[in-house]
Write a structure and sequence with these properties.
By secondary structure, this protein is α+β, with helices and mostly antiparallel strands. It has helices at about 5-20, 160-180, and strands spanning about 25-35, 50-55, 65-70, 75-80, 85-90, 95-100, 115-120, 130-135, 140-145, 145-155. The strands form two sheets. It has a six-stranded antiparallel beta sheet with strand order 3-5-6-7-8-9, with no helix packed on it. It has a four-stranded antiparallel beta sheet with strand order 4-2-1-10, with no helix packed on it.
Length: about 180
């Protein structure tokens, strides 16, 4: 007859596993913005802006402005235009918005050459809208909409099952070590 302690331990581990918060998701984002003309009489600082980045964060809809200005989880940043300072991101779960731009807070604060890319409806690509703001130290330019591509970097589907299976094998291994008469 199976040991009830082992069955109870497995049941508790499955329950704990299902109650875990959602794993952080990783997204690859590519974008391209074109300015037909400046909103001002000044010449354009650049005719187009493009780039790509990978960002990993927990897209919790109840989290307002999580990780504002953070660079954690932001990798593979490649931009074809000049900017000052560091690049960071902010996630607004309440409005499903991801903002990528220069620090602090990834919003333009107009102290140098800066940018902010706004992606609204980020986790639902069918309703996503976008805007790129660029500031060259004197004049701001805006591009709306921005051509973009957002793709989710998949987590292997079998990963939770692998973790559960390894845990069960560990419990069975412990049981065998404690009862030398069962060893083969």
């Amino acid at each position: 007859m199976p040991n009830t302690k082992i069955i109870l331990a497995l049941a508790v581990s499955v329950f704990v596993w299902t109650m875990q918060p959602a794993l952080a998701a990783t997204y690859d984002v590519d974008f391209l913005a074109n300015w037909d003309q400046s909103p001002f009489a000044d010449p354009l600082p650049l005719t187009s802006a493009s780039g790509s980045f990978r960002v990993t964060f927990d897209p919790d809809p109840s989290t307002p402005w999580d990780g504002v200005g953070t660079t954690d989880g932001l990798t593979n940043v490649s931009l074809d235009f000049a900017y000052d300072g560091s690049v960071g991101y902010a996630w607004d779960g309440a409005n499903d918005a991801l903002v990528l731009g220069t620090l602090p807070g990834v919003n333009i604060f107009q102290s140098g050459t800066e940018f902010a890319l706004f992606l609204y409806g980020f986790t639902n690509p069918t309703t996503i809208s976008s805007r790129l703001a660029y500031f060259d130290g004197a004049i701001s330019w805006y591009s709306e909409p921005v051509a973009f591509n957002v793709s989710t970097v998949p987590v292997p589907a079998a990963l939770p099952f692998l973790a559960s299976g390894l845990g069960a094998l560990g419990v069975l291994g412990l049981r065998r070590r404690r009862k030398p008469g069962l060893a083969a």
